[in-house]
């Protein structure tokens, strides 16, 4: 019955594809092992040829028919026994002294939406996967990563991803790098790719449920009772728990405002996200400048990613849902940039996109298919443009880039083998 209802509504849920009026062309192989001359395709043609799932309907499970239900299932669903991924963790110390070990607001490598992509990507070819390496960069303090400086993370701070990519590029100099970001991580990845422009070390990027206009999202979350009570407070609750986990370390930085801030934020009773950001993130969400900001709204205005879309210079796919209760604006004009494509589904919620499985009562994530197709095409079919990238070198033990010696990273002791769902009790998943 569920599958039948889903089928009846499928015609309404074909993803909509949006591209800029100005076209950009990429070179691609006819097929991964083709000896023929490469073809020249517009981004639209490239996606039609390489990502056929985006031309097929998304059929949400009939019992998850709204964005609220799709999003809620991300939190309450049990994904512990599917898409199992195990990691060998490397801890990186950045120049400012923080350990960084790339997700949503308070998630990490353990999240089900991360594993849903990494499982088929990293599964060996002989077992039906792509056989690629997968690397997740966890934000400071998330997924069991220690905090060793008063600086935290935010929707706009990109240096941690930047230096992590330097480390990866130096460790695997011949590997093609593809960036995938989820929710808050999607915002950070978008800004990073735009800031790097023609020098970006990634061959392609893909973001899911990006918040885009962080000012508008904040207003929606705070000005509507349901969004404020359910989503805003749930996200703030997760952030409070992260601060509590690292209270001893953060309160020890007595020469930084964060030492008092942690006391203030833990004293808040059921805060909203803007209250948390007004107390903590505007002060400690990145390096100075631009931090600290006068208010959370000032921080949101700075962190927005929709305004940087015109600066992207690699093939870039963004997938969003119209009924996402957390994301209120989707920049369907693609920033006027031919490198950018947006795929928008009518349903799917925030990082949900659950469809009915053939097994009764089970679900699959529809999003897995188009994202894996995009990754495979970017690794095997795309012929990236030659990039003028600056040399990476070691300075005082830190991997850094010529001309950017103020930031960098080096490996430190710790890490070890991590099973994807370990040590994350107490936080609401899927956010």
Summary tags:
431 residues; 33% helix; 2 domains; 17% strand; alpha+beta; Rossmann fold; five-stranded mixed sheet; 15 strands; disordered N terminus; three-stranded antiparallel sheet
Descriptive notes:
- The chain has a five-stranded mixed beta sheet, sandwiched between helices. Strands 3-2-12 form a three-stranded antiparallel beta sheet. A three-stranded antiparallel beta sheet has the order 5-4-15.
- Mean pLDDT is 88; it is low at 1-11 and 99-104.
- It has helices spanning 2-9, 43-50, 67-76, 112-122, 159-171, 184-196, 214-223, 225-245, 247-251, 258-266, 273-284, 296-303, 368-380; strands spanning 16-19, 25-28, 39-42, 86-94, 99-100, 178-182, 204-208, 316-321, 340-345, 354-356, 363-365, 382-383, 392-395, 398-401, 409-419.
- The protein starts with a helix and ends in a 12-residue tail after the last strand.
- The protein contains 13 helices and 15 strands.
- Helix 4 (112-122) crosses helix 13, helix 8 crosses helix 11 (273-284) and helix 11 packs across helix 12 (296-303).
- The longest helix is centred in the middle third of the chain and has 21 residues, at 225-245.
- One of its GO terms (molecular function) is monoacylglycerol lipase activity.
- It holds the Pfam family Abhydrolase_1.
- Belongs to the AB hydrolase superfamily. AB hydrolase 4 family.
- This is AB hydrolase-1 domain-containing protein.
């Amino acid at each position: 019955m569920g599958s039948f209802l889903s089928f009846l509504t499928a015609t309404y849920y074909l993803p909509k594809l949006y591209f800029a009026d100005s076209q950009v062309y990429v070179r691609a192989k006819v097929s991964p092992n083709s000896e023929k001359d490469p073809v020249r395709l517009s981004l639209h043609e490239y996606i039609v040829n390489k990502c056929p799932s985006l031309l097929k309907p998304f059929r949400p499970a009939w019992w998850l028919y709204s964005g609220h239900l799709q999003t809620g299932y991300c939190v309450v669903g049990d994904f512990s026994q599917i898409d199992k991924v195990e990691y060998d963790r490397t801890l990186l110390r950045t120049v400012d002294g923080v350990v960084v070990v790339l997700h949503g607001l308070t998630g990490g490598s353990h999240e089900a939406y991360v594993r849903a992509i990494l499982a088929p990507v990293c599964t060996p070819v002989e077992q039906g996967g792509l056989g690629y390496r997968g690397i997740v960069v966890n934000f400071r303090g998330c997924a069991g990563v220690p905090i060793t400086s008063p600086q935290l993370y935010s929707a706009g701070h990109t240096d941690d991803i930047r230096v992590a990519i330097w480390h990866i590029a130096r460790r695997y100099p011949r590997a093609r790098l593809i960036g995938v970001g989820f929710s808050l991580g999607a915002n950070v990845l978008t800004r990073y790719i735009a800031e790097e422009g023609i020098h970006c070390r990634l061959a392609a990027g893909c973001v899911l449920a990006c918040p885009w206009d962080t000012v508008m999202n904040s207003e929606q979350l705070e000005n509507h009772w349901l969004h404020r009570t359910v989503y805003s407070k749930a996200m703030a609750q997760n952030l409070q728990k992260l601060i509590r986990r690292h209270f001893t370390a953060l309160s020890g930085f007595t020469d930084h405002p964060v030492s008092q801030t942690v006391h203030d934020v833990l004293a808040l009773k059921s805060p909203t996200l803007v209250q948390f950001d007004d107390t903590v993130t505007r002060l400690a969400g990145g390096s100075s400048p631009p931090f600290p900001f006068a208010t959370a709204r000032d921080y949101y205005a700075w962190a927005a990613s929709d305004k940087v879309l015109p600066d992207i210079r690699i093939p870039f796919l963004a997938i969003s849902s119209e009924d996402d209760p957390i994301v209120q604006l989707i920049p369907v004009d693609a920033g006027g940039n031919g490198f950018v494509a947006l795929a928008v589904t009518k349903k799917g919620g925030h990082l949900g996109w659950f469809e009915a499985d053939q097994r009764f009562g089970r679900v699959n994530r529809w999003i897995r298919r188009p994202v894996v197709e995009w990754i495979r095409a970017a690794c095997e079919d795309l012929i990236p443009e030659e990039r003028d990238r600056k040399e990476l070198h070691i300075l005082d033990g830190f991997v850094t880039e010529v001309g950017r010696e103020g930031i960098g990273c080096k490996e430190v002791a710790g890490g070890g083998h991590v099973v994807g769902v370990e040590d994350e009790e107490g936080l609401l998943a899927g956010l």
